[in-house]
Each structure stands twice: as C-alpha cells, then as structure tokens.
Write a structure and sequence with these properties.
Blueprint: H1 8-50, H2 69-80, H3 107-110, H4 130-139, H5 157-169, H6 178-192, H7 202-215, H8 223-252, E1 255-257, E2 266-268, H9 269-272, E3 276-283, E4 289-295, H10 299-303, E5 304-305, E6 308-309, E7 312-316, H11 323-338, H12 352-356, E8 360-365, H13 375-387, H14 391-407, E9 410-415, E10 438-444, E11 461-468, H15 471-482, H16 490-500, H17 509-520, H18 529-542, H19 569-584, E12 592-593, H20 594-598, H21 603-612, E13 615-619, E14 625-629, H22 632-645, H23 651-656, H24 665-674, H25 676-680, H26 691-703, H27 718-729, H28 737-763, E15 775-778, H29 784-796, E16 803-806, H30 813-822, E17 829-833, H31 836-839, E18 849-853, H32 859-866, E19 873-880, E20 893-901, H33 903-914, E21 920-925, E22 928-929, H34 937-956, E23 962-967, H35 971-977, E24 984-987, H36 990-996, E25 1008-1011, E26 1014-1015, E27 1029-1033, E28 1036-1038, H37 1039-1051, E29 1056-1061, E30 1064-1066, E31 1070-1071, E32 1074-1075, H38 1079-1087, E33 1093-1098, H39 1102-1108, E34 1115-1118, H40 1121-1126, E35 1139-1146, E36 1160-1169, H41 1170-1182, E37 1187-1192, E38 1195-1197, E39 1201-1202, ...
Parallel strand pairs: 7-10, 7-11, 8-9, 9-10, 15-16, 16-17, 17-18, 18-19, 19-20, 20-21, 20-22, 21-23, 23-24, 24-25, 25-27, 26-28, 27-29, 28-30, 29-33, 33-34, 34-35, 35-36, 36-37, 36-38, 37-41, 41-42, 42-43
Antiparallel strand pairs: 1-2, 3-4, 3-11, 5-6, 12-14, 13-14, 31-32, 39-40
Amino acid sequence: MEQKLTNKEAQNWLKCMLATFTTRDVIAKLADVGFKAFYTHVRSGLLAQQGILETTTCNLCSNPSNMCGLCSEIGNQIWDNHRFKKAKLKGPSWSNTDSTKWCIDSWELAKCYMPPTGYKDKPDADSTDFNGIIGAIYNCTWMQCYFTNDLSKDSNICAKAREEVNKLRHIQDTNINDGDMISFFDCLLNLLNDPGHLNSFKPSVDARTYLTQLQQETLPLSENAVNSTMKKIYEDQKEEFRELLIEHYRQTQSTVSVSPICDGRDKPIHTVFVRPTLIHVAIENDGSRRKTDKEVHHYRELFYKENKLNKRVIIQGEPGMGKTTLLSKFVLDWCEAASSESQEYSANFSDLETLQGFKFLFHLNLRDSPKTFEVVKMIKTQLINKMYADEGERTQVYKILQHIMNTEKCILCMDGLNEWTTNNSDPFPLIATCHKQCVALITTRPWKMADKRIKDSGIDLLIEISGIMDKNQLAIFVLKSLQTNNSKSYAEFMLYVEEKKLHQFLASPWLLTLLVSVWINSQHFSGSLCELNCILIDNLFRKATTVEGIFSHAQFRCLKATNFIYPHVEILNSLAKLAFECTFSSGKSLVFSKEKVFDSLSQELLTFSLQAGILSERYISSIKSQFSFLHETVQEFLAAFHIAKSNDISISSILGSIRHVLEISQVFVYLCGLNTEKANTFLDSDVYDLQCDISHGLSSYVKRLYHKNKISVVHDDNTNFLNIVLAKRNNTETNDFDSNARCVSIAILFQSMLIAGFKEAEASDQNVSYLVCNDFIFHEYLHDSELGDLKSMLMNNTLRVRSLILRSNTLQTKEILTVLQMSKACLTRLMIPAHHDLYRAFSDLNITELVLETYIDAPVLSDAIKSLSMLTYLRLTECNLQYVLCVPVSLKHLELYKITCSAVYLSRLLVLLSSLDHSIQLFLCYCSLAFDNHKTNSAYDRANTDKLVVHSELLSCDMSRIDLLVINGSRDLYELLRGTSIGILALSTTDDVSLAADILPTLSKLETLHIRGTFKDRGCVQLPPTLKRLELYEVKCSTEWFGRMLIKLASLHHQVRCYLLDADVNNRYTEDGLVVSMSDVHSELLSCDMSRIDLLVRNGSRDLYELLRGTSIGILSFETTDDVSLAADILPTLSKLETLHIRWTFKDRGCVQLPPTLKRLTLSKVKCSTEWFGSLLIKLASLQHRVQCFLFDAVVNNRYAEDGLDVSMSDVQSELFTCDMSRIYLFVENGNTDLYGLLRGTSIGNITINTTDDIALAADVLPTQTKLESKGCCAIV
C-alpha cells in the first residue's frame, strides 16, 4: 500500500473514494436502464400523439435549431423533461449531444441532462463519471419514476450525494476523520436504499453490503483494490485538470490584437489568422544552418521524425513575424483535438489526429519566468496558480503534474527563448530526463540561435517563420476588423503601399497591422521604421491625453508628424531611458520590476504610460507585479532614441554589457534612422569583438571551407571532401568547421544589419555617407532591393573596402575598377568576374585572397598576379590556360577549377610551384589536359619532345612541398605525375584512385595520401614505400579491401598513421552479386606485424572492429562514444596495443576493457562519471607495469546523470583505496573538482598538473596521496 495511506485518516479517505466508485457503478447501471426506458417512452408518445412509427429514424439532423419533424419532437421531449428549463439555468446541454444519434443511442439523450462541458465524448454510462451520471438522473424529471424521494426538493438524495462527492474530490488533503467518513457513507447508503427502485436493484444490494463491510472494517483493503482505486482517482483528477486547462486556454489564447495603436481591439484568432510559411532549416554536418525549400504542412512533421518523437523543436523568426500568435493557434488546435466541444475555426494543419495523440499541452511565456529554470515550476506559476484559487488544490494538481509529465505524451509550448534571461549555463529551460514523452516547441529570434551554448545535438528540428502565406488575405482581415462600414477598401490600401513603396512592411504581420491602422487613421509616412514607431507612440499617447502640440524644431525628423508627444516629451525621454537601462544595463531584460521602472519614471509618468498602453503591468502575486513594453521592437526603438539624444553615453560601455552587436541589431537599425554618425561608432573595430569572426567568415566563404552546397561553386559531394581535406591540413583553430560556419553566418548577419541600417537612414533623410562598411559580399541570397542598397553602400565606401566578393554581375566593370583604384591601400580580399580591363589594376595591391570567376587568360595578368606580394590564396575558374602563370612567392594555395590546359603547361606550373621555398596547396578540380590537333608529323613530334623535356624537369625537381588534391582527374594527368617527388596527394573519387593506381608506387617522396570513394573490387591500392600517413574519408569498401590495405601498411618498415573517418567497412559487401568474406584476409592480418600502425577511427562499423580482433595493432584512437562501444570486446585481444586514445561522452557505468600491453592511455575532452573513470583507474592499476594516463579537458562528474539516476563515487573510491596505483603516471590539464576528489587518499605514483586552475583544485588533495613519488606543476602561478 502506498506510504501516504498508512494512517487511519488516509485510509478513511481511500474508503470514501472506493465507496464513490462503487456507487457510481450502481447509478451508471440505473441510468443506462432508465434512459433506454426514457427513449422508449418518448417514441411511444410520438406514436400515440403524432403517429410517428418507432421504426422511423433519422441520422442527418445535426443542428438543434434546424431539424426534421421526428428529431424536433425528440428535442421537445428532452426540453420538456429538463428540471431547470424555466429557471435561471439554460436547460438541456445541447453541446454535449450528437443529435444525429438520437434515434439509435439513448445515451445521447442522457448527455443532454449532464453538465455542459466534458461529456460530449462519453459514449456510454460506463465511461461517464459520478458527477455526469448523478446530474443526468437529477436533471431529467422522467427519472423521478425510479425514486421515492422527491428529487424536486433542494435537499434530495441525489443533490446531497453530488455535494458530498464534490467535497471529497476537492478535499485539501487525503485525511478524513471517522465522523466525516460515517456521514459520507450514510449519504451514499441513503441513495442506494431508496425504495423506488434501488432498494431491490441487485447491483445496489451488493453495493450496500460492500459499503457496510468497508465502513465497519470487516472487509480488508486488498492491494489490488487500493491500486485500482488510486488509478481511478488519478484518471479522474487528470481529466478534470485537462478539461480546466482547455477552458483556460480558450479564455486566454483565443483572441489576438489587430491593431497596435487601438487599445482593446482584439478579435478571435480564427477571424484574422493567416497561416505562416514554416521552412525547414537544415543543420549541416559542419554545424552550418541552411534554409531549405521544404515547408511544413502537417503537425506530424513538427513533432515526429519518422516514428520517433522529437524532443526539442525550435521555431525562429524575426520580430513581429507572428511567433506568439502561431503558438496560440497551435494551443487552440490542440484544444479542438483534445476536447469534445468543437469551436468555429479551422485548424492550422489538417492532421488534428496528430495532436490527439498528446494528452496535454502546456503553454508558457518565457518572459514571465525570467529567473525560473525548470519547466515544471513554470507550469505551476503560469498555469496552475492561475487556474486554481485554493493553495491546497494547487499543491495537489502540482503533484499530478509530475505524474503526467512522467507518463503522458505532452507538448511544451515555450514562447520567446530570446526573452528568457536566466543566467544558467544551459540555454534551454530544463525538462527532466524522466519526462521522456515531452516535446518542447520553442519560439525565438534568430540571433539567439547563434548562442555558443546551443549545440546542434540539442535541436531535433529547426523551423523558420519566413512570412505568411497570403499577405493580401491578412490585410483584408485586418481592414474588416478595424472598420464598421468598410469605407476603405483593400485595393485603396494596396495603391497606397505601391505609391509609398512600403512593400517591406507587409512581410511582418505586426508591421502590416500597424501600417493598416496608420492608413485607416489617415496618417501617412515615408517608410522609415523610426517614423512608424513615432506614429505608434503618438497614437498610444493620444489614448492617455487630449492635449496636443507639435515640434517646431524637432531634433529628429520622425517626430515632426506627431501631435501628442510634444506636450509630454519628458515622458518619452523617461521611457527611452527606461528602455535603454533594461536593454543594456546588465543584459537585455524585457520584463522588469516596479523598482526598475521608478528609476526612470515617477508614479505619475508610470500611470500615464500604463493608460497609453506603451507599458503593461502583470501581477505575478498579490504583492508583486512585472512590467514590459508593448512590444520588444518598441523597447529597442526607445533605447536607440535615448542613445541618439544623449551625449554622455559611452558606446564602449553599451557594448560591454552584451555579447556582440548582432544581439542589438534592431537598436542599431533604429539608431541609423536617428543619428547615423553615432550609429557608425558601433562599427568601430576597437569597440566590438566581431571583426576577427567576420574576417574569418569571409575567408571561409571565399575558400568554400564549410558545407554549404548552395554557396559552393561545385555542387556535388566532392566539394565537401575538398573542404575537409583543406581544413585538416591546417592545424589552426580557425579551420574548425563548426567555427567556420558560425563565422560565415556572423559575416552575413552583420552585413544584413548594415543594409537594414542603410535603408533606414535613407528613409529618414540621414547622411548615409557616415555609415562605414568595409566588407561587401554580394551572395546569392540577397534580395533585389538588398543588392541595390549594398551597391549604394559600396559606392559610398570606395576608399575603405577590405573585401569585395561578387557572386553575380551586380557591378559593372568600371565600378569594380573604381573600387580597385580607390581602395588600393586597404583591399585584401577579392572575388570578381574576370575581365581584361581589370588586370592592370591588380598591380601592387595588398590582396591576400583572389578569386577570378570565369577567368580570361591574358599575358598581362601573370605579371599583375606576380606583383601581388601578399597574395596567399588564388582560385581561377573556367578557362583555357595558355600563357605562363607567374605566381608571387607568398602564394600558399592555388586552385584551378574547370581549367583546360596542355600537359606541358601543367608541368611547367608544377616546376614553378616546386621552386617556392615553402609548402603550397594545389587543387585541380575538374581540370582536363588538352592536346593540339597537329597538322604535320613534325609538329606532333615537336610537341611530344616538349612533353618529354618538361617531364624530365619534373622528375629532377623537388615536389615534396606540393600538396596536391585532384577531383575528376584524367589518365594523362596521373601519367604526368609518374615518378615525381610529390609530397601530399588527395584522390577524391573512385575513378581518381583507379587512374592513379599504377603510378602511386613510383612517387618517391609521397608521405601523405588522402582517399575517398567506393571500392567494390578485392584488390588494394598500391602504396609507395615512403608513405607515413593514409587518410580514408567516407570510403565504402569490403573488409577484405581494407584488410589488404592494412597488410600493405604493415609491410612498410616505419611508423605509419591511418585515419578512417566516417567510413563504411562492411563484412558482407556485395560485388556483382557475390558476398565477400573476411576470413582469408583476417588470417593474414593475424600473421603480420601491425605494431607500427597508428589507427584513428571516427564512426567505424562493427565489421571493422571484428576485422581488427586479435591483431597486433600498435596505436588506436577512437573519436566517438559509439566507436568505444563497438570496440569494447576486441580491445583485450589486441596483443601489441601500447597506446590508446579516447574521446567523447560515457553515460554508462561500465568501463573500457584494456589490453595487458597498454602503456599509454589518453582521454581528450571526455565526459564521464566518477564511477566510470574510477573503474578505468582500477583497470590501469591492475596492469603489471608502469602506465601513463593523460587527461586533457576531461569532465569527470560526481553526479553524472544516466536515465535520471545519480551516480555516486563512494563505492568505486573505496575500491581505489585498496588497489596499488603507484605504477600509474597521471597527467592532467583542465581537470575539475570531482576528478581531484576521486583521487583523494589514493596511492597514485606520479602526477603532473598543467594549469593554474588545476593547481588550485588539487591543493588539498595532493597531501593525501600515500605513495606519490613525484609531482609536477607546469602552470605559471
């Protein structure tokens, strides 16, 4: 029995609940019998009075106000037999019943006498609760024939029973004293004893016996009875909570404001809602996020991926795009799906059955819970506390909530992640691990998704609201909602939009409604967002005052057309100060306290602001309230207004309170419309920390160093390989692909912010020449209007251009030439269409990166490029090369894309690159070697001789510093490389590997080989004897193919590293219908010495690790958790494994099995429990020799959660105390508290700590080491 039912009073409560359910079963049977008889009585009366035969039926009449004669007469009988049809109540509950079933189902008649909500979906008596059944019996006067007691009296037995049961259901706790229990049982027994029918009714007789025994404690409470009753209680309470939740949503979420300037002008959502366009945003492998063409058309697409429930769905959208309204519509759609009471609106998506699968939906405004981290606590404060007045009921429902979220499928709608200002390290509100069937649907602004704390793995689905499907329909809806006589038409409104060029305001539903409101009120404006905000504020002020006045000398143009701001300008200034303080003081806050308000506003000004509606107040308790501005965009405009009018504000201090300027991009845009010169101070590179990210993002864009196929020139998968090879050859952090994608996004977002600022400055008649822009990227995602604005910005900044990236013919050649000439001193990055007239302008530029699209070969270009003394990156595309290309000595990367040239030309180019005194990367992508059509044999012989001479030069020069990547090369190309001293070679397709197969062994200095492709044959690539590194990326092959590759590597007489990245090595790889087995090659592997092979695996397969079983591999590295798991049982069989490297996260409590030969173990960026790591140390201690263990950036957590359970280190630490760890050499860099706590009192033999923080964390642990012979501190203290 449950613990809470052990005391006498709690058992009394349980007995009362058992009595209630027992009595319900009896009256349910009575009601079933009674209403069948009532239906027979009704039909007999119709036959006698109207002559309507009992065999006559109808199943078409669904509207009680428009029925056929038969259904109308049945309805009249239902009305006539309702006890309260003439009293203050409304009579039958028509919303409960399905009138099309009146002729076939008597229970549909019974439901007309039940309470008006919660019973429409109850198909029979068995599924109806006590309240519904007793209500039907009591309210139907015909049911009096089953009772002796007069049911018309207020104190009848049915009314008393209903009252007692309702009191029981809403009791404060689960304790009832003996006297109250006896009184409760007497009430139910009186009902069951009524002489009219129940006294002799067999179910009632049995029930009275059961209740008497239960009351007198002669019947023990069985475990099954208790559990069954508790389950029924929970189901009843859960259903009551659900019904009240639906009612709450229909009261609070069913309307939406249709005018930002007309207070109280809200309308039912179904009258104005226009479906938004929801676009899938793909999260690429490199972490970049790309809008796709795929739209969301069904709820199932939001909540499920295949048949698996999404855990977190993010809907991002710019301000005013309708995110909040969309969530409200989702909530109402769920109410429609979950409730038996249909409402008069259509669902957002057609598949309401998907929503029916979710028993609960909880809608939360994150701005209302700024300091709350747990979702369940938000639900309590925002929903439960508002739905229930009694504190005891709130506590009880909160307990039910815990059970609901543990067991039921729920939707958690959370609006405004960007408005949630908690300081917790987790970027999302906490949903407990045990809430496995909850899906979070979260709205936010896009800038929030650039938060570094948000991991790709934390997003199951990313959706963007990119506008509404039918802007015209929304405009029509709003026009109708704001007018009584429709005096102004939609056609007139659109003519106004055309004349003023205000189309951009139609993209946002909020701006569209504001624009319609302004137009209806006959207020015209230029298209400036600042002016639009001033019009909005002016109209709001008008609601709080009748005093008018205009600015004779307005500081800002946007104030000129206002009529109510001037007399109260001090209020505007005070509101602007408040907005500024809340935006910049200590992180952006959209909800603030009364104390914060009073720092800027007096009580009088606050009252005015609340009356105007520019501020709103929400009470969160009886003594505390919160304030917010009408809309976030209004707060941002006022913050910009304060900055623009104040001369004592430090821009450095403003930006010091935020992470980056993009976080306040809308403030910047408004500032451009108010004071462009001051806005430009935001762009000072000494003030914000974005310049490095932008520069790196632009460089990554130019070099195509991230997985954005739509941006890349090459549209097939080989581009990804090119990018990955490129990134991996540089050991700098800046080539990390996640960082690249983020930086490209920042560069594009930053430019979009500048374009919006320029547009606003122009509309506001500001001097746009003040707006400084150094980097220009004309990418393909720009709209036509944005292209024009960006071009204008470029022409205003021709003296200061750092980057000019053209992916289209937006600029004419003379315009490009102007930029080259004017920005000669600062231009560093150039990507343009090639043209003869531009080449001479290249001379002596400080360009470091140059891309010539559709390159035009010319002799003058070679000299110009050679003069670029700082050029490091050069890409030429789509041309026929004939003239010798001279490159500057600074060049480090040359890419030729879709180039045609002769073998002689390419040979001379390779010789030239070999002469450089540093390494250089050469990419040949889709290049072909052409041969002249010689008309004479002598000409042919001369060309052949030239080839032989140049090839001999290739053989004699040192090409070991050339890093060559080839995509779709030719046989002639690889023949040209035969016998050369190339140092690094990347073959990116299966055909490239095949064509190069017989020349690879001739490459006398080849040390690094990269391969990608699919290999179905059983042969193996021939390797040069000098090879030191082999990288296989996304290779698909049989275990036999890879096994033979390992044998080849083992035959080399030196250490060799093999990287196997995302490869599919399959034991049953099919070639021409044959199944390839690994048995033969595995036996060969066992017989060869693999101790010199250093193998790194990322996302390996089970067949791969089976191939390695029992081999003599010397060094092994695992890059993922799955790799460690798949290799777990083969590790102890590796007879010569001395070094093991491990990365990633380990949630299980098991430990890696180690081979007895292990001498070095490295854990890099591992996350694990103290139990997991402690078990690993015990394994190391069991080895009979000295072993080194290196920990780099590892997180060892004492309370690491797995499936909601906490793991303690007490057990494993006691084992550590008993084992001899003196042979373990431990090196730690960036450890944590729990790690050092685990080591306390152990017998570790040698420890080196490498950072100042490590020294501090280990300070009180080191003295407890019982066998510590040596300790090292590498940090600077």
